[in-house]
Amino acid sequence: AQSVTQPDIHITVSEGASLELRCNYSYGATPYLFWYVQSPGQGLQLLLKYFSGDTLVQGIKGFEAEFKRSQSSFNLRKPSVHWSDAAEYFCAVGALSNTGKLIFGQGTTLQVKP
Amino acid sequence: GAVVSQHPSRVICKSGTSVKIECRSLDFQATTMFWYRQFPKQSLMLMATSNEGSKATYEQGVEKDKFLINHASLTLSTLTVTSAHPEDSSFYICSARDAVRGTEAFFGQGTRLTVV
After folding, report:
1. Which of A52, A55, A100, B3 has the most crowded Cβ, counting Cβ within 10 A?
2. Residue B99 in 3-state DSSP?
3. Residues A90/A24, Cβ–Cβ less than 8 Å
4. A7 contact residues in B (CB cutoff 8 A)
5. Closest C-alpha among B104, B85, B12, B92 to residue B44
6. Domains (ranges, CATH) in chain A?
7. How far, in Å, CA of B3 to CA of A101, rounded?
């Protein structure tokens, strides 16, 4: 079955600390992977995506993610978290033939302590 | 570029009435649009895929007669929740895939539907 798992429902980090949000996927075809951020009551903003090539991808707001095929993972990282990063983060997977049709993980709520 | 506008952002309606949500691609053509539903503090679940000029494809378990989707042009798809009930209250988000670039879909800002 196709699925995306974000093992951490809620994460709290101190401002300035590093961050890693985990994402594991199960997908029958070549996966195309995305990370989105959602502020309360808002739509989704794309942070970064992986289609092919370099497995370390850079995104907006200082985020990066690394695709590890052997581990079926696509973890999101940021070296130094800012208070404005507090939000809900979603990992998603799609197929090249239909990258708009996405399977989302459950989401991880990030709280940032001053 | 690649802006998707969703309207309204919030709507309250009475049980038994119908409500229409619009999803527009403002600066690109979208042959395909997608409608998702998000329950409070949960993930997004794909409801249906909307193709311009043809019938929508609904995901398993989604009532097509309740959630009417129309994609009459390359820049507009509508979702109509018919005979709404309180359990239909949710956050509805659309996305649109750029027909030219085709590498990703862009999301609207969502519509908060409350049925009272």
Report:
1. A100
2. coil
3. no
4. none
5. B92
6. 3-113 (2.60.40.10)
7. 18
What percent of chain A shows pLDDT beyond 90? 76
- Give the mutation candidate from A9, A25, A104, A109 for the B interface (greatest B CB count, under 10 A): A104
Give the pLDDT means over successive 10-residue stretches in chain B (116 positions): 90 97 93 90 90 90 95 92 96 88 82 96
Q: How many residues does chain B have?
A: 116
HSE at residue A25, side-chain half, CA atoms within 13 A, is: 27
Distance from CA of A84 to the nearest CA of B (A): 19
Q: What is the pLDDT of residue B102?
A: 66
Amino acid at A40: P
Unique residue bearing structure tokens 């289609």: A51
- Separation of alpha carbons A51 and A62, rounded Å: 19
> Which residue in A104, A41, A34 sits closest to A63, CA to CA?
A34
Distance from CA of B77 to the nearest CA of A (A): 14
Q: Which string of DSSP letters, residue by residue, matches A17-71?
A: S-EEE--EEE-SS--EEEEEEE-TT--EEEEEEE-SS-SEEE-GGG-EEEEEGGG
Q: Judge contact between B25 and B96, C-beta under 8 A.
A: yes
